Amino acid sequence: MITLTHYLVLSALVFALGVYAVLTRRNGVAILMGIELMLNAANINLVAFNKYTAPGAMQGQIFALVVITLAACEAAVGLALMLAVYRSVETIDVDEINLMKW
Amino acid sequence: MIGEAIAFYLLAAAMLGFGVVVVTSPNIVHSAVALVPVFLGVTGLYILLNAEFVAGIQVLIYAGAITVLILFVIMLTVGGTGLRIPERNEQGPIGFAVAAALAAMLAIGVTHTAWGRGGGALPAYTPGAIGQSFLGPNLLVFEGTSVVLLVSLIGAIIIARKEE
Asked: In this complex, is the C-beta atom of A65 within 8 Å of any C-beta atom belonging to chain B?
């Protein structure tokens, strides 16, 4: 029997994978991939809560759709920033992008 | 019920296995391609949770659009194999410790909480209910999201454009 807790633990593990990617990657695009993993973990939680704690309301699925839309916006802007950074400093290694670092 | 459990554990194993490839692979292209099975695993979970419309949107936007966008940017930046810069920084152990501690705290938290259960049942046809909700009680959310989408796409075009 799969319960809400199973989904929540799985999404916690996926979220931790995303945190690990953000903390240890040097490539800016890989950091964006970690952020996508974290957003997916949040979406699993929203849809699981929708089914198991408030099945009558559709808010969980509505929020999941809004989060998917905003994740697409975030990916578009983030990847455009990566392109612009690559064009001006010739690298997307986030350890090398320290132009504004004191 | 037993079929649901088998499907859940298979999807979870596939998601976590390919997720580890995404976060640890030394080749950025492998990471980007391994994102696709992770997103498809999430789609399977949505189907298990009776959210067919969200599952369809997940395939279209994540497995389709976002993965292709990421691959395009990889090819346009570090190019080809993407092996020119070291992919991992020197914070591997401490990053692993932080991620493991976070996962353990979240898992302990959610397993020791008694989640309440509200009334009602899922509607038989969830896409219809989602459409009614978006054009009814959640109209402001819908309109706000569309404005954010428009602004961010215009912003992305302007940021990525070549300077004259």
From this structure: yes
Cβ contact A31:A20 at 8 Å: no
ipTM (interface predicted TM): 0.88
Q: How far is CA A13 from the centre of its chain?
A: 13
B163: phi then psi, degrees, rounded to nearest 5: -70, 140
**Cα–Cα dist A66/A64, whole Å:** 5
Nearest to B101 by CA among A19, A38, A30, A37: A19
B122: closest chain A residue by CA? A55
B134-138 own/partner pairs: CB under 8 Å, 24+ apart: B134/A62, B138/A62
Residue closest to A27 by CA, chosen among A70, A79, A76: A79
User: Cβ A33–B22 below 8 Å, yes or no?
Assistant: yes
Structure tokens given for A12: 């916690």
Q: How far, in Å, CA of B73 to CA of B124, rounded?
A: 41
- All residues of chain B having their beta carbon less than 8 Å from the beta carbon of residue A58 are 123, 126, 129-130, 133
Q: Could you report the per-residue pLDDT of B118-155, keeping only the tens digit for each?
A: 767 777 777 888 888 888 888 999 999 999 999 999 99
A–B interface: beta-carbon pairs under 8 A: 240
| pTM above threshold 0.95 | no
SS3 label, residue B85: coil
- Nearest-by-CA chain A residue for B105: A12
A9 with B89: Cβ contact below 8 A: no
Asked if B70 lies within 8 A of A68 by C-beta distance, the reply is no
